[in-house]
Amino acid sequence: MRIRTFLFLIYCVNAFFVSAQYDTTETINLGTTYITSPRTITRLDESGNTISIITKKQIESLPYQDVVSVLNVVAGVDLRQRSVLGVQSDASIRGGSFDQVLILVDGIRMSDPQTGHHQMNLPIPLASIERIEVIKGPMGRRYGLNALSGVINIITRKDIKTDEKHLTIEGILNSFYPSDSSNRINQGIKANLKGGSKQINAWANFEYFGGEGSRYNTEFNSYKSIAGINAYNSSVDASISILGGAANNSFGASYFYAAPNDKEAIEIVNTQFLNFSAEFLKSEKASISVNISNRWNYDHYIYIRQKPSIYQNKHSSKVQMQEVNYLLPVFNGELGLGVEARQESIQSNNLGNHQRNFWGSYIDFSQRLWDVFYVSLGGYMMNSEVTGLKYYPGIEFSAEVYKNWKLYGSMGTGQRVPTFTDLYYNGPNNLSNPLLLSEFAIGKEVGIRNTQGDFSSHLSIYNTQTTNSIDWVKRDTSQTWMPQNYQEINFTGIEGGVSFRKEYFGRTFSLNWDFNTMQNSILVEDGWESKVNLNFVRVQSIVNANFEIFNNLFLNATWRSINRQQSSNTYSLIDVKISYQNSYFKRDYMIYFNSTNITNTQFEEINFIPNPPLGIFIGAKISI
């Protein structure tokens, strides 16, 4: 009864304020914002799914230094961190596992066939990001493999103006203050170089963070670098892009995977990727795009750093992928067709040597009617030795029901193939299961959104059913853990938000509230004990305020309230950023002060792992 009353109150607030998507420092014109995909053209205000977009201005204003922390302000997204500054984190959407989220960089898959634990090991400094798109719900129809609970697409910056050339340097000093009063110091440096001309531009970003972490044996060194070249030829209406990046991390892994016995563990994770893409005949004509990408990952885990011979794992994985997409305008819509091929391989002292191949094709058709109705439908077909021949259909729609009010909805499907760890990992207390089946999900959503002047809001109800869900289980304490397709999980939830933006005396003030609340039911055979317990965020509320205090002096504050399924306690986190921006001798500069978890709240996102305490960041940035 309390849940029904709460949802009714949420709906009343939503209807009162008038409507839509996440916004922190700037207004997004929903009529001209497009979801980035070479497979289709979708306007944000026409989408049948709930989508959150974080722009570069929002990223610059938030009190965070890494992609993982930035994503924490998106309702429905759960980021579970084992250490500080994104060293090792898992992302989930609307209750799904970290293996069920598809991570993209400019449409390039960052999925790791060894384990989803490495998906967020991204060589993406914040300065290189144009925006982040978070698409919620099963999206196999449009994105193919492993888009079961949602998609996070990170778009890099390509907005270099003609003849723009400059270097930006930033330095950061950070300290965490745990309850034992032994403050730990970390430091970082960032560099951003870019230049452009009429037909070609290039850019590169480098970032280093390192130090003592936030508790015992979480010392780390993290290097991230990324570079891109974009060329455009107007005479043939074609563009070519090359993008590559590398992330090299070494860190203490105390309590990361086998708490409390892994107190002395350490790990090295190195990730590199390279992508080539070309697009021909753009604008109002049909377009053809080609993408060729490679991703490499090396993971070396030592259980006891003082005695490596006791137990260690070494894994090297490689992913190759090619895709061709054809997009054709049809009447007032588009027809998208495409094919792709993907090869995953691993060499490991524990998992063995394995290789698997996937082939996929898709069709996507969208149509606009009388400028008030939009519908998109299609499906993705996949074939592999792992899954056999499978088809994943989907449909979405939006319709203007009254002035700026739009009703939207979708039905989507998706799958997640088992990782090599699921299939082949054997350890002291674990057995492998090479007979695992792929997970399958079907999701439904219906909602309403509205944008009118300085107010916006959205509200939706969704349901996701997952079958063949994989978990590590056993019958009793005498047995070893083994992954099994033993669960059927049904998530039902409501997500919404209200956004307000106004200028007072020439200064901008924005206030946003986003929330997500879920409940689940699980069909499990009696007698099984679960190792990977369902610890999803049951209730989540996020408030963000951003305003200019005085000329060029800005304040951003974020408040997050979180309640997890396995805990009766709700904890709140407050993060603040104060920044001053100006120019000196025609050089732009910024100095800032960040404080995260300023109330020093003690909480756990993963069992036995205390999350970072109060953190202080001081930084300065200058463009040369």
Q: Give the mean pLDDT.
A: 86
Helix content: under 10%
Counting structural domains, the number is: 1
Task: Report, as a whole number of angstroms, the end-to-end distance.
Answer: 60 Å
Low-confidence stretches: 1-31
- From the 3D structure, determine the CATH topology: Maltoporin, Chain A
Please state the structural category: mainly beta
If helices are DSSP runs of H or I spanning 4 or more residues, what is the number of helices?
Answer: 5
- The CATH architecture designation is Beta Barrel
Q: How many strand segments?
A: 34
Summarize the biggest pleated sheet.
22 strands, antiparallel, barrel
Radius of gyration: 24 Å
What share of the residues does DSSP label as strand, in percent? over 45%
Could you say which overall geometry the principal axes of the C-alpha atoms support? globular
Q: CATH class, please?
A: Mainly Beta
Fold topology:
Layout: H1 2-17, E1 34-35, E2 42-43, E3 51-55, H2 56-61, H3 67-71, E4 77-81, E5 89-93, E6 101-105, E7 108-109, E8 129-136, H4 140-143, E9 150-156, E10 165-177, E11 184-196, E12 200-211, E13 220-233, E14 238-252, E15 266-280, E16 287-302, E17 312-330, E18 333-348, E19 352-369, E20 373-384, E21 388-402, E22 405-416, H5 420-424, E23 439-452, E24 455-474, E25 482-504, E26 507-524, E27 529-530, E28 537-550, E29 553-564, E30 570-584, E31 587-596, E32 604-606, E33 609-610, E34 614-623
Parallel strand pairs: 6-9
Antiparallel strand pairs: 1-2, 3-8, 4-5, 6-7, 8-9, 10-11, 10-34, 11-12, 12-13, 13-14, 14-15, 15-16, 16-17, 17-18, 18-19, 19-20, 20-21, 21-22, 22-23, 23-24, 24-25, 24-27, 25-26, 26-28, 28-29, 29-30, 30-31, 31-34, 32-33
